[in-house]
Please model this.
Amino acid sequence: MDSKINSANPAGTNPNSLSKLRMLSNVCFVLGFVSIIVSIIVWAIAKEPNLAHGERFGIFIGLWAPTFFILSDRFERYARVQA
Model:
């Protein structure tokens, strides 16, 4: 199998994959903020019969935010290394 290196991109990195990594990083970053907002909404609309369940579910959704922010950072770092 022939391996050809593009003269415009001597490292052989696919620019399309870099843009996908950056897009995925941005999506994870936005999802982090969305999970914070959704957790506040879930906590605020928790009704009396299952108030504790609503609060726990809001906390559970709020715990997704750090995961999304970490994933966003990792994808961005990986894209910078590949560039």
